[in-house]
Amino acid sequence: MGVTVETIRYYEHEDLIPPVRRDEGGRRVFTDDDINHIRLVIEMKKADVPLKDIAYFASWRGDGDDSLEARYEFLEKHELTLEAEIKQLEKSLAFLHYKKWYYKTAIEAGTENIHLLDGTLEVSEDTLNEYAQLLKNSDAKTLGKR
């Protein structure tokens, strides 16, 4: 799972996961449920869910059916947050693709002036329109490849 022993200890200490059963030698013995719980914590962390929120979620799991609504609402809230972040990242990526195309074509022409209004550093409407037209028939990532 790509998790260190120190991370497991930390997760237990912070009540992100329930205590894991140990064998007679003191070694942790993970059940499928333990592994699924750790996977949940890892995925929530990747989704930028704060650790204190993950701990709340973990505590609700022990409440059984009484916390079903709370757990659903928790996931729905974080889903909306993550979707908003993804949309923003997609916009940022689209802008980077445009800039790569911009510089690729400027390099090919030997000058950035092909994209600028005469005597300024302002990008011409023609450049923006050209890129928009190219996007209709190609993928943005491909347009910026050299």
Structure overview:
With 146 residues, the protein is mostly helical. The chain is 64% helix and 0% strand. The longest helix has 42 residues, at 68-109. It starts with a helix and ends with a helix.
Reconstruct the topology from this structure.
Layout: H1 5-13, H2 32-46, H3 51-61, H4 68-109, H5 125-137, H6 140-143
Helix-residue proportion: 55-70%
- Structural class comes to mainly alpha
How many alpha or pi helices? 6
Listing every helix as H and every strand as E from the N terminus to the C terminus, the arrangement reads: HHHHHH
Low-confidence stretches: none
Number of DSSP E strands: 0
Specify Rg, calculated over alpha carbons: 25 Å
Query: What is the residue-averaged pLDDT?
Result: 92
Largest sheet: none
Q: What is the assembly state of the chains in this entry?
A: single chain
Shape by Cα distribution: elongated
Fraction in beta strands:
under 5%
Our measurement of the CA-to-CA distance between the termini, rounded to an integer number of angstroms, reads 37 Å
Provide a concise account of the structure shown.
By secondary structure, this protein is mainly alpha-helical. The chain has helices at residues 5-13, 32-46, 51-61, 68-109, 125-137, 140-143. It is 64% helix and 0% strand.
Task: List key phrases describing it.
146 residues; mainly alpha; 64% helix; 0% strand; elongated
